[in-house]
Amino acid sequence: MAKITLEKLRHSYMADPKGPEDYALKEIDLDWENGGAYALLGPSGCGKSTLLNIISGLLYPTEGRILFDGNDVTQLPPDKRNIAQVFQFPVIYDTMTVYDNLAFPLRNRGVDEGHVKARVEEIAAMLEVTEMLSVRAAHLTADNKQKISMGRGLVRDDVNVIMFDEPLTVIDPHLKWKLRSKLKELHQRVRVTMIYVTHDQTEALTFADQVVVMQEGEVVQIGTPVELFERPAHTFVGHFIGSPGMNVLPAEVRDGAAFFAGQRIVLEGTISAGSGRHEIGVRPEFVALSEAGVPATVRKVMDLGRHSVVEAVAGDARISAVVEGAAPGQGDTVHLSFKPEQTRLYRDGWIASEKGRAA
Question: Are the beta carbons of 129 and 147 closer than 8 angstroms?
């Protein structure tokens, strides 16, 4: 296991990059602590796979360094980094038994058969596949094949990090929850540093202790699932995480206060100095129907069983609210209020209000 440090990391696929727009990865500085569970989360094309390939040694960065426990491994090839990877499609040998698949990474490194047997049986028990050890991998279901692929990463006890690259993409939806739970359980038992790459917020937030959210090659926020939900540092994080995503409303700032649809909106705290494009961000869970507030017209109502999502229009802006109990009807006029301590101002996408007494 290892602490992984990325120092001033940048990468461009161009031979002579000129400006920020030429870089697939903007400058990244971060630490992943030894034994932690981390996720890289973002849409396709945001740089997740590029970063993963740099950490694994499949790609050398244009600038910066990668450190494992303080040792510079930037120029080391993949086989010198002691990394295990689990990919979208299970990497196993169909003609081998489950036992031989799990044993392969150890036998390939000359480990004695006594230790191989003990380790394979230990990992098989963790994965709940002991009864399958003598079965040829070709006969396994897709989810069990991915279990074995995970096991091949876990079976080695000398790895610095295990990296999972969209490992549940080909798994049936009804089995994903089971495998996510199993992976979380395995991490808690073995405490190996794990990095999980995905575009699926549910996978990232249920697996990781810390999530790195990426957009267009840039890290826009690092935090716990709760931090990302409750206080997005960027409007992209608010949009990307949550269902429905955060409301982002056009705002005007004057005299130290924020206004939307002609009304002053009480924020979580004071507004930092600066100029730019201003927006108010508030999650639907913190928007309520009230007797006073922003007047809006209900556009549609989605009944989700335990609650409804009401989508209303104020001016040209759409606002979603999570409503429990009776919901208004389409075309009704309503008033919407925002929970002050969960209502924030953003400037050019980045948070520009400060925690404190509502202002």
Answer: yes
* Cβ density class 73-91: b for 16+ within 10 Å, e for less: beeeeeeebbbbbbebebe
Q: In angstroms, rounded to a whole number, what is the distance separating the alpha carbons of residues 84 and 109?
A: 13
Token duo for residue 254: 């004057």
> Which residues contact residue 257 at a Cβ distance below 8 angstroms, ignoring those fewer than 6 apart?
264, 271, 359
* Partner residues linked to 264 by β-bridges: 259
At residue 11, the pLDDT reads 96
DSSP 270-294: PBPS--S-EEEEE-GGGEEEESSSE
Residue-wise pLDDT tens digits, 159-180: 889 898 888 877 777 778 878 8
Token representation of residue 216: 């267009």
The owner of tokens 């120092």 is 7
pLDDT > 80? residue 209: yes
**Domain ranges, ordered by start, for the chain:** 4-230, 243-351
Is the pTM above the cut of 0.70? yes
pLDDT at 64: 96
Are the C-beta atoms of 343 and 280 separated by less than 8 Å?
yes
Q: What is the spatial distance between Cα 183 and Cα 10, in angstroms, rounded to a whole number?
A: 31
Q: How confident is the model at residue 359 (pLDDT cuts 50, 70, 90)?
A: low
Tokens of 61: 């960065």
Interval 34-49: pLDDT, tens: 989 999 999 988 999 8
Tokens of residue 251, six digits = 């705002």
Beta bridge mates, 343: 282
Please check whether the domain covering 243-351 is classified as CATH 2.40.50.140: yes
- Say what the pLDDT of residue 1 is: 64
**CATH superfamily name and code, 4-230:** P-loop containing nucleotide triphosphate hydrolases (3.40.50.300)
